[in-house]
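Retro notes
What went well: the complex prediction finally ran end to end.
Inputs used:
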Amino acid sequence: MVNIIEMPEITSPTIANQPAPSPEPGVERAMIEIEDVDFSYGTHQVLHDVSLSVPARAVTAFIGPSGCGKTTLLRCLNRMNDLIDGAQITKGSIRIEGTDINASSVDVVDLRRRVGMVFQKSNPFPKSIYDNVAYGLRIAGVTKRSLIDEAVEKSLRSAALWEEVKDRLHVSGYGLSGGQQQRLCIARALAVEPEIVLMDEPCSALDPIATAKVEELIRQLKEQYTIVIVTHNMQQAGRCSDRTAFFYLGRLIEVDDTAKIFSNPGQRQTEEYITGRFG
Amino acid sequence: MEGVADLQTLIPPRTTSRRVQAAIEQGIKAFFGGNALVAIIVLALITIFLFREGFGFFGQNLTNLRLYRQAGLEYVDIIRDVSTQHEALSRKLSDIRLQEARAMEKRSVPVEEINATLAPFDQFASAFGDTAENLRTLVSDLTDQASALKESLYARAELAAQRAQLERSGALAAAEKIAVPAVDRATALATLHQGAATFESVSAEMTATLYTLLAQAPPLPDAAEQKTFDQWKTRTREYLAGLPKASENLRTWSAETPIPWYRSISSFLFGRDWVTASFWQDWYGIVPLLVGSILVSIVALFFAVPLGVASAIYVSEIASVHEKRFIKPYIEFISAIPSVVLGFFGIAVVGQFIRAASQSPWFKWISFFPISERLNIFTAGCLLALMAVPTIFTLAEDALRNVPRGFKEASYALGANRLQTIARVLVPASLSGIVSAILLGLGRVIGETMVVLLCAGNRIAIPDFSQGLGAIFQPVHTMTGIIAQEMGEVVRGSTHYRALFMVGLVLFTITLGINYLAQKLVARYRMSIG
């Protein structure tokens, strides 16, 4: 990471030479379309002119060194950045199935129900396993016990956690191991039946075995969900994503099929990053 | 290896010897340790002092209680009690008359007519009052006798104590000079005992007169007042039915029945009277003071908890940065107001305002309004709430702010709005922190002295709960208030002095318990979040 300073300045022509990514070649049906997005925290601009399409029912990985803006972009997709004072998109638009999510007509609560999120640090509520999973439904106004029971079981099964916790649904979520807690958070996100699931470095705090389980889960989930995952782990991106986007210093350097990025990247920085020469 | 060698040259060579270094470290350790030790020793000394001064109370109180029985004061009080009940009934009658007159006034009946209608009732009331004439005379005679006996017993005990002290110090000649008079307790008590016969005849006469009187009770024009009056009649009949029991008590009473040692403790903890410097008998019962303190605290928390917790939630979750910058220091500033200033404000403004408000026609629907006392539980509670708000606010805000950000984000990411996030995630997650904030606020309120001394009205009595919530508009005295007020005037070492220490000890125990509980909760809260 220290080497970043020594890297040659990225010249704007490199960026300008990027092909217009919308519609990107290789993306048949775009779920999310990000177009020319600039983003700032107050006066500090962290995203520059990012354009990207996220295909439906596939896993898209965002990679890049720390501080490159990949998490910021991820949090733009369900407007989590609204919670931060002064953070805003200053240019461009993000469309999900054709609707601009920052339009004033869009209800942020609805948006977040459609776009679920799993965080870097597992963060189950200090409630029982059952109540954790049921939370999203309850705040949405679902009161019928049988519906909630059903959804809890379904989500826990989807998150491959059901067999491990079915006998102790009413004990605290804190009694679970780190990997189980993260899968509980995934189950919680799935319970409201989102279309898109955003994952912000979901395995960064997990050991290799728990990581393998979560990765396996991600591969299964793409059958039903559109998944965007931010990761620091190159192998992880290679193992479980279909497309990979490489970010550097707030700019999208390259986005393509994962196989191509890892075997034959189009840009020099991408190659240097994934081969471990920096980052 | 090279790197290590380089590092060594960076560290300057040691200038002081190892021994000096160790000595300095020892000194620093001793300094901090010593300070901590001083604090602990002082606390221990205070506790020991409190206990030493306080526990002497029980022995002295026992002597006090024994004298009460031996001198026959208890005997007289049985009869006095009967007389007092009669007075209460009499007072109730005048209350009924007042209510009735008011009701008639409302129907715009002219004053003359009211008086004319109520004339039979007035006659009835005054006849009722007269029936206790003989009883009162009896009580006053017996009071004199018992007081005289108590005085002489007390004087004898004093002299005996002086003499014993002189003898112990070896001044036998001086001791001889002090003549301890013999007190003929048996004769005095026998005279007192004759009161039982008198009481029997007096009460029989009264019972007969009252039953005739009750049969001729005049009706009242208003149904509501008639109902109260009927209730009164039932109570009077019960009272008359209880008279033989009093006679029975008088006959079986004996000055020689021993008083068990635990009465000294139970009469303090459960005693309903706090009477000091009385010519008759001193009572040290903590109940009225305890009830006063508790009621004032309840009222204070009733206001302070919603205010403190709600503003904490507002500041930590809803307020903009500018609002935060304004609200937080402002609330915390309240705690900088000296309590005596607050008390002054309470007397001059809040008390006046509450009384004026209670007289306004808007509050006519409240049964116990208008209130007569400007300084009461409610006034003191309002001001104490003001003192508890900063404590509750600061600690609750801390607790809310310490809820991990992840909880909040997870909740929002699931589509929760702000209110749902606050109610379902943030408050439950910080609940034990908030509860401990409330407990510490309670500790502050119970221990507060100046405000209650100035604003609670300082009447030593258990509020009359028959009016329901109206009880909180009555004046009370509190544990802290009584210590502040009476400690300056008591004789050192007297029963009264020691009783005040006991009150202090009870207070100390309560606040200690509250603080302990609060700390336990905070520890649990840290664990559950951690």
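What we learned: The two ends of chain B are 41 Å apart (CA to CA).
What to try next: split runs per interface for comparison.
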